[in-house]
Amino acid sequence: MIIRAIGLFIAAAAVMPAANTVTFTETIAPIVYQNCVTCHRPGEAAPFSLISYEDVKKRGALIATVTKSRYMPPWHAAHAYGEFAEERRLTDAQIAEFGEWINQGMPQGDPAKMPRLPQFPDGWHLGKPDLVLEMPTGFDLPASGPDIYRNFVIPTHLTEDRWVRAVEFHPSARKVVHHVLYAYVDGGALAKVDGADGRPGFGGMGSIGVTPGGSNSGGLGGWAVGATPIFMPEGLALPLPKGSDFVLQMHFHLTGKPETEKSVLGIYFADQAPERRLMGLQLPALFGFGAGIEIPAGERNYTVDDSFTLPVDVIAYSAGAHAHYVAKEMRASATLPDGTTKPLLWIQDWDFAWQDRYNYKAPVTLPKGTRVDVHLRYDNSADNPRNPSHPPRRVQWGEQSFDEMGSVTLQVVAVNKQDEPTLQQALADRARAAMRKGIQDGTAQRFQQERAGISGSSR
Ligand code: HEC
Hints:
Layout: H1 2-15, H2 24-35, H3 53-58, H4 60-68, H5 92-103, E1 131-134, E2 139-141, E3 148-155, E4 162-170, E5 177-185, E6 202-203, E7 217-224, E8 238-240, E9 245-252, E10 259-261, E11 264-269, E12 279-283, E13 294-295, E14 302-309, E15 314-323, E16 327-335, E17 341-347, E18 357-366, E19 371-378, E20 395-396, E21 406-414, H6 420-440, H7 443-451
Antiparallel strand pairs: 1-11, 2-10, 3-6, 3-9, 4-8, 4-11, 5-7, 5-9, 12-21, 13-20, 14-19, 15-18, 15-21, 16-17, 16-19
This protein binds heme C.
Residues 32, 35-36, 38-40, 45-47, 59, 62-63, 66-67, 72-74, 88, 90, 225-226, 353 line the site of heme C.
């Protein structure tokens, strides 16, 4: 009898919620504090705070719209196409709560029920770094104008080779920095361009770390608005050779008031060289340098496809994509030797502003003989709201914002240590083949002219 009564009670409760009041303090604030305030708080890159009842109420309708369309929280990897750690995503039920709250007139509820605001410590999130680097001079940014891309070179003065497990980035003017990519180059390799225009660093959004003259270089990850620094999976690290310079490529989005950026970086080293070498499996290689990218003005469906069959068993830890503004869609998938397919990454509405790296929840094993396919699509029509050229112009490979490039990069290791040279050789061969193609079709020459500041004939 008691059990029956409870059963009835539960059944009654299940049909009740529609009549329940959705309040700010009990329903909305917990959602916002968990999913929005990492970026929507004072001093962060989001344009306003979402902390108090007034903050959220004032923008209630807009919040309902942007959560329903899933524009917010920002996350560009298609849900369930690959499973990623720390996916920023509201549940359908949470989205419905915003709508319901607005229908009910956005009641505040009992102030005593407010959740605590999450703590965001000012210091080093990952603990004391092994090496702290700081931009030698601040870079002055105007109040307004188009986005600015600038590279900064910081000597590491390292006297021995080290291995990087994490980089923690502390911008001084958080509001203007949208994203950063890190790399190393041989010490002095960028001395010619660094400061050549009389200001700190040098311009351009080129392939970070790629230097003319074949300097030794390599990527070291990056940071985007709202990102929390993390260590690489246990046993993995990226090389930072002795004597190298650390390079930061920053994307600034101006805020309406002048700012000066002088970033500080904390670098965390592994005690020893990692067991396994982490490699970038990039399709197409060299950010599409050899892919013959040539997009006619107005073309809304220009595609680049590339594939690679794995010569050895690998484990993939993360996927990331890179392109400029005309790119629309980027997709990577794997077809295993037994014919089954595995989704790896699908960005359906590429947005240059969100250059995240997506870490797999569980590393993805891809056996020897697996074919990895990458499909890129570009929309160079006037209907692409992100097209930087009005009217659209012919787009080729290059490092200016109106040029294009594109690739998906998986961070992989060989499952068996003895297979590393085979994998490394295969990746080097792809890069060399791409380089050859880019030289043959004139991309290399255009690139060198751009770097040298001579406008190519295509401008
Ligand atoms: C990773 C950082 C980040 C997170 C998390 C985030 N936002 Fe945003 N939000 C931004 C940025 C940056 C902008 C400015 C527009 C842009 O750059 O896309 C923005 C803009 C907005 C806008 C204005 C949109 C417009 O059209 O003007 C609203 C509303 C908003 N966010 C609500 C939310 C809500 C609600 C959440 C949580 C459910 C959230 N955001 C989570 C970074 C974030």
